[in-house]
Every structure is written in C-alpha cells, then in structure tokens.
Specification:
3-stranded mixed sheet; 10 strands
Length: about 210
C-alpha cells in the first residue's frame, strides 16, 4: 500500500492542452491523403481509441507546411464543443493522425508522469467533472468548454496503486456490462424465434412456422 498522499492540481499544471488541427470548413475526405483524422463519431465513452491501421478513421490532405501536433499513444482527446464533453485515451493510431478543432488534445507533462492517462480520462468523464463542464456551458447558444475553463479544472492525483485499482474496477464493470448486454440480446433472439413459431402459421401445411 502506498504512503503517498492524494494531491489536487489544475489540469493545466498536469497536461499540455492544445486545440485540434485548424481545418477550415467541411472536411474533404481523400483516401490518398497524408493524414488520418479523428472526429466525434470515432469516440465511444470510456473506450480507448485503438485503431493502429486507421481502418475506422478518415483520410485527409493536410494543407500548409506547419508540422501538425500528431496524436501519440497516451494522449487524451476531449470533446469541447456540443452537448457531449467526453474524453478518450489514445491507445494506438496510425503515425500521422490529427483531431479536428472540436477537440482539445491533452498530453500529460513529464513532471506529472505518475498520473495515468487512463485515470485522467476517466476523471474527465466522471460526474463531478461533467457537472463542472455543464456549468461552463450554461447560457451559451452552442455548448462549448473553453481552453481556460478546461485548464482550471481541478484534478485529483492519488497514488499510482490507487489509480491502477480504480482502472481495474472500471474495466471489470465494462466487461460485466458488455456481457449483460449480450445476454439480453441473446434472450431477445430466443423470444423472437418462439414468437415467430406461435404467430406466423405455415399456410402450406396448416401448422405454425
């Protein structure tokens, strides 16, 4: 058991926060483009981005000569615009991958190396942080969390062993949820099959199909 105490710090002291790549207007897809791009639809709450070959991502041609801030394993994407303010960890993506400007691109600082990216993303998705983001967007015609507001979010940093245990619990709960959903789906398939036998008679034999 670690003797290190919990401590709290602002997000900006723990991670660099950058906006996504500054695309102008609608994205023009190009299968021969020079980069992959992550959009909102590629994120599932609580699930890491794991697509090493980029099969689910979009390809685009990046304009300009400035080197983009490509996504690395361990980075975190935060959805800053719209009704969803979810976060996801990057596990594996193609080498030249960026995100749209609807995201903030977070990277844990070297001096905060004892903060697990998975734990930070989980904390951003937690109800406490979500309440904070909801307050930030109050009164706005279009919900939006600014860089300043995100930077000021208080983040709890417990000992690494507590972070590890928390993420093990989260992963176990997710597996249980997936299993339960599969059981419910299997049961519904059984109900549908029996219903067809009862409700749809076979007119050729006079029996029920």
């Amino acid at each position: 058991m670690s003797n290190q105490a919990n401590h709290q710090a602002s997000l900006s002291s723990l991670a660099t926060i950058r906006p996504g790549y500054p695309f102008r207007g609608k994205l023009a897809m190009d299968k021969n483009g020079n980069a992959s791009v992550v959009q909102f639809r590629h994120l599932v709450v609580g699930v890491a981005l794991d697509d090493k070959d980029g099969k689910t991502l979009d390809r685009v041609m990046l304009p300009g000569r400035r080197r983009p801030d490509y996504l690395w394993p361990g980075d975190i994407l935060f959805m800053a615009r719209g009704a969803r303010n979810d976060a996801a960890v990057v596990k594996a993506l193609p080498p030249d991958t960026v995100c749209t400007p609807n995201f903030f691109h977070l990277r844990i600082k070297p001096e905060a190396c004892r903060l697990m990216p998975e734990f930070l993303a989980w904390q951003l998705n937690h109800v406490d942080a979500q309440r904070y983001f909801a307050m930030c967007s109050q009164g706005s015609a279009t919900p939006n969390v600014t860089k300043t507001q995100l930077s000021e979010l208080p983040v709890m940093v417990p000992p690494i062993d507590q972070q590890t245990r928390m993420m093990q619990l989260v992963d176990a709960a997710r597996r249980e949820s997936d299993l339960l959903e599969q059981l419910i789906e299997n049961r519904q398939c059984m109900i549908d099959a029996v219903a067809r036998q009862i409700l749809r008679p076979d007119t050729t034999t006079g029996t029920r199909a």
